Amino acid sequence: MRRAAVALAALVLLAAAVLTVLAAKRSGEPGTDSPEAGFARDMSAHHAQAVRMSFIVRERTRDEPVRLLAYDIITAQQAQIGMMTAWLDDWGLPKTDPGGRMRWMSGHHGGAHAPGSGADGAVMPGMATRTRLRELERASGRDAEIRYLRLMIAHHRGGVDMARAVLARTDRPEVRRLARTMVDGQQSEIALMNRMLAERGASA
Amino acid sequence: MSKSARTRARNQQRHKNLQNRGRSSRARNRKNALIKREVPWGGIVFFTVIGVVSAVAIAFAFLQTRGPSAAEAAISGVVEKEGLSREHTTGAVEYDTAPPMGGAHDPVWQNCDGRVYDRPLRDENAVHSLEHGAVWVTYRPGLAGDQLDRLKDKVDGTDYTMLSPYPGQDAPIALTAWGRQLMLQDASDARIDAFLRAYVKGPQTPEPGAACDGAKDTP
């Protein structure tokens, strides 16, 4: 009887402890100024440009390897935008930060806060300017492929830096998992794109 | 019997007596407890503490699951409109507000990736951008230069926004999302940031995940 009561008491205390820990964990969700939220917003915009560039090159060349690479980037990065958007939804956070881009990545000076920044749309590491995008839209065949590969190598390099930056700033498993896949996936694509440039007689 | 043996025997006897006395007093106490039916305060306190701790933990966990959405706090002055058509048409559409807050629109959206336009946009294209989760910032032509610069900086730094003049609108500045609109007098109004946080790709977006580039790039 006495032993049963002690066991019951221990069980209740354990349950209370578990609930408290769970609650504390929940209350530890990222805030709007957290690196996780900043990464989710900024990487979404960064990815969106990669999707755009990949669509452009698919319209500007018939070369199958380049078209397939572009297809790969479009589908993967668009899906990742959806994952990051879902995080912000789960955390109940705004999808934008009117305070400016890239504030979570200390040390990087984003163009957003500088009035009339003149960044021409290239507001994050590795992003292409609007001028470069227009040039890609006008190029065709081999010229378009080479332009695309060069722009996308720079784009991926910036993306890898951003993913590494969030890895250094977060313990959240879902963020770490996706950022890791970005680092690994984009690095291997950089190597592939360098080979593709060489095959087309161009340097990076 | 030596002296030391006698002492030992005496000590043993004393020890035995003490043991007996202890046993009998414990027996007395046990009897008293049965008769007096003492209130088990120890048990009551113990289980009360456990009960309170678990109740607090459960309540805390419950409250944590339903925290308020930061983005959804009410912004004073926002006008709402529901039941807007999402039909696609290449023809002209007559909208009942200026700027329009949604409704039938052109299949081609206006690029809204933090884009500053210096000429008025075609409503039918801009409405499609609202459907994609953009906030359209508009101003009455003639807005003071420093006011306009503030708006340009804000839009230039925020994805899924676009800026254009809108002749004939009721206030110097208007912010429009799908089904939501806020008229403002001043570009330094704090409600601008609040509106952007709430409605850029906000829960009112009819087509979440849709793009803000790749379509119409000029007014």
Automatic annotation (TrEMBL), chain A:
<dbReference type="InterPro" id="IPR012347">
    <property type="entry name" value="Ferritin-like"/>
</dbReference>
<protein>
    <submittedName>
        <fullName>DUF305 domain-containing protein</fullName>
    </submittedName>
</protein>
<feature type="domain" description="DUF305">
    <location>
        <begin position="36"/>
        <end position="197"/>
    </location>
</feature>
<feature type="signal peptide">
    <location>
        <begin position="1"/>
        <end position="23"/>
    </location>
</feature>
<dbReference type="InterPro" id="IPR005183">
    <property type="entry name" value="DUF305_CopM-like"/>
</dbReference>
<keyword id="KW-0732">Signal</keyword>
<dbReference type="Pfam" id="PF03713">
    <property type="entry name" value="DUF305"/>
</dbReference>
From TrEMBL, chain B:
<feature type="region of interest" description="Disordered">
    <location>
        <begin position="1"/>
        <end position="31"/>
    </location>
</feature>
<dbReference type="Pfam" id="PF11303">
    <property type="entry name" value="DUF3105"/>
</dbReference>
<keyword id="KW-1133">Transmembrane helix</keyword>
<keyword id="KW-0812">Transmembrane</keyword>
<feature type="transmembrane region" description="Helical">
    <location>
        <begin position="39"/>
        <end position="63"/>
    </location>
</feature>
<protein>
    <submittedName>
        <fullName>Membrane protein</fullName>
    </submittedName>
</protein>
<dbReference type="InterPro" id="IPR021454">
    <property type="entry name" value="DUF3105"/>
</dbReference>
<keyword id="KW-0472">Membrane</keyword>
